[in-house]
Amino acid sequence: MKIDSSALARWRTARRIALGTIVVAGTMSTAAAIAHRVADHPCNGAHARADIQSYYTYSGIGIELTRDGDDLVVARVFPGTPADGKLFEGAVLLSVDGESPRHIQQWTNMIRGEQGSSVELEVVYPCSGRDTVVLERDLVRVRY
């Protein structure tokens, strides 16, 4: 029996291609299974990472302050916080616990405090006059 060398070369090439395809397919299948398992794990999933560092928590009343010239103004009231429904955007802060701090950081430090303690704010609204608001500090959770 005579063996055709070109047929043998073609058979060897086909065998290499088939074996290579099996190896590549197995590698891809294993990698996909591992990636799926890691992604579904509660400690490694994108959902777990988003929950870990997407909130800033502090004890206070839940307002964002901004400067308007020399005035310190309530820029935003966070929903569900002690200030919600009692202070409103645009309120100009006049005093906190009877004092008028000079710098925004001093205002912030005086407004924040121990959870359950109270803070008194005197404010003025451009359209309706002065108001004194007493709020109980609570944990405020702000998403960022």
From TrEMBL:
Residues 61-105 form the PDZ domain. Gene3D superfamilies: 2.30.42.10. It comes from the Bacteria. InterPro entries: PDZ (IPR001478), PDZ_6 (IPR041489), PDZ_sf (IPR036034). Signal peptide: none annotated. Pfam families: PDZ_6. Coiled coil: none annotated. This is PDZ domain-containing protein. It comes from Enhygromyxa salina.
